[in-house]
User: What shape does this take?
Amino acid sequence: MFTRRNGLMIVLVVIALTLIACSPSVPASNTNTNSNSSSNTSMTPTTSGSASAPQWGKRTKTSGCAAVDGRPDPACTPGDILNVTKSQICKSGYSSSVRNVPDSVKNEVYAEYGITSHRPGQYEVDHFVSLELGGSNDISNLWPQPASPKPGFHEKDKVENYLHDQVCSGALTLQEAQIKIATNWQDVYNSMPH
Assistant: This one.
């Protein structure tokens, strides 16, 4: 049975494959180092024949957001990246040097997703494209990821570490890893060696 979700997944896979095949070195144009600014200049992946290709950092909705199947609402959290290189993200301490999400922004993320209260450890305000993969602190890259059902934020942390290792070892380009985590991190989790 063909569903809307299946159609969306097919479109995302086609976009990701087209990006990887057609433009293996599309540079990120986000040079904004003020990570909490909503005026980031974003890299725009494009596909031929596509009227509305996904865009890093371009939100079309700021309320009524809903996570589905362990992924953020793409209208609220499309993901966002910084203009960084493999050598930068592979340097020890990089993630902690750029991490900057104030509680006020975390509270805004919870509000956009309609979460008015939660238990400690129930959610984590997560970077959709992780900092260790060049993700930004911008709200367009943040969402309240639940711990359960599994795979939840603990499992996504393993995916982030795995993809970071793949980039730093040269098995994947940084752009490939960013696309993998943003299109379907659960597929990466399911295919990872455990």
